[in-house]
Amino acid sequence: MALKKTHPSALKENDGIEQPDSISTSSVQHIQQFRRKQPTADELVTNILKGDKVALSRAITLVESTSSSHLEKANEIIKGCLPFANNSMRIGITGVPGVGKSTFIEAFGKYLTSIGKKVAVLAVDPSSSISHGSILGDKTRMEELVKDENAYIRPSASGESLGGVARKTREAIILCEACGFDTILIETVGVGQSETAVHSMVDFFLLLNLAGAGDELQGIKRGIMEMADAIVINKADGDNVKRARLAKVDFNRALHLFPLKSSGWSPKANTCSALTNEGISDVWETITDYFTLTKENGFFDKKRKEQSQYWMLETINEQLKLNFYSNPKIQKLLEENKKAVQNNEISPFAAAQILLKSYFE
User: Fold this and answer.
1) CB count, 10 Å around CB of 115?
2) Are 100 and 106 within 8 A, CB to CB?
3) Measured between alpha carbons, how far is 94 from 163 in angstroms, rounded to an integer?
4) This model's pTM is above 0.85
5) How many whole angstroms separate alpha carbon 93 and alpha carbon 228?
6) Could you tell me if 234 and 272 are in contact, meaning their C-beta atoms sit under 8 angstroms apart?
7) Euclidean distance between CA atoms 255 and 259, whole angstroms
8) What Rg value do the Cα atoms of the chain yield, rounded?
9) Under 8 Å CB-to-CB from 45, ≥6 apart: which residues?
10) Confidence band (pLDDT; 50, 70, 90) for 203?
11) Residue-wise over 328-357: b if at least 16 C-beta within 10 A, else e?
């Protein structure tokens, strides 16, 4: 008689350990409970008016966003901040690449905070036409100013905007003013004689230049030289001091060739060194002289009103363009007409008229 097996076979498969869920329900609940909720428009406005830089940064991000879902909230924030704006000195700073704009702004900003000013720097970096990206490295270049409690630095990409500034720089100025910053420095991308948009949003336009780089010839050209309220020859240090002084004389002579500005102000040229801080206080003295003159003769208020009107019209143009290209009917018709134009079946002008007629119908 065969013996009955009392032990299971070694080949028997044992039940495995049941694997837990890949997502822990308790962890999800914990994260949701403590996750910081997005503040409302009213909360952001309240905190901005208290001088909260984090709220200011969040608000500028919403304003710069191209998402339609952020537009309404951004407009509410601007509306809430507008009554507390328009109380600062707005200074545009431009110059050719390599002139030392960031170094100058850091030295200038540190000087302003040392005399009790609250400084906001809106730095605009050029966007690549290929990758559409920007370095946004201004905080790295201004490592001393960024640590100053009375300073705020906000880098932005220029995107497709022309004129040396970002698309929403004007709105960012309003938010910074509401946050308590009394001096707004706008650093442009530095592209030479096409920086016109920044001139229409600042009170004082400062042009940085270099000595011994052929820039003296700009003195007899129209364009950006004509818009400048002051010219500063930077890097006047070391072996470059003599050349900088000669450039100052040349620029002052050239400035006399231009007709007197409607502000009644005669632009001046000076020298400075952002490395040694030599001449930085003189730049501020020139700017304060300009503000004293233009506020006394009424030009300051007149220019602010004209700028507000200009930016209303620019906003209309921008919104019309956005609505046109986001229209589904136009998008389809646009592709058809692109092909027709490429194949010489229709002229570009006739195609444009068809698209515009279809849009307004």
Assistant:
1) 8
2) no
3) 11
4) no
5) 10
6) yes
7) 9
8) 29
9) 59, 76, 77, 80, 81, 178
10) very high
11) eebeebbeebeebbeeeebeeeebeebbee
What is the token pair recorded at 185?
């420095």
Q: By the 8 A CB rule, do 152 and 51 touch?
A: no
Give the 3-state DSSP-derived string for the chain, with helices as H, strands as E and coil as C.
Answer: CCCCCCCCCCCCCCCCCCCCCCCCHHHHHHHHHHCCCCCCHHHHHHHHHCCCHHHHHHHHHHHHCCCHHHHHHHHHHHHHHHHHCCCCEEEEEEECCCCCHHHHHHHHHHHHHHCCCCEEEEEEECCCCCCCCCCCCHHHHCCCHHHCCCEEEEEEECCCCCCCCCCCHHHHHHHHHHCCCCEEEEECCCCCCCCCCHHHCCCEEEEEECCCCCHHHHHHCCCHHHHCCEEEECCCCHHHHHHHHHHHHHHHHHHCCCCCCCCCCCCEEEECECCCCECHHHHHHHHHHHHHHHHHCCHHHHHHHHHHHHHHHHHHHHHHHHHHHHCHHHHHHHHHHHHHHHCCCCCHHHHHHHHHHHHHC
Q: What are phi and psi of 223, to 5 degrees?
A: 105, -125
- pLDDT tens readout for residues 291-332: 999 999 999 999 999 988 888 888 888 888 888 998 899 999
Tokens of 275: 């490395």
> How many other C-beta atoms are found inside a 10 Å radius of the C-beta of residue 165?
28
Amino acid symbol at 179: C
> Which token pair is 197?
């948009």
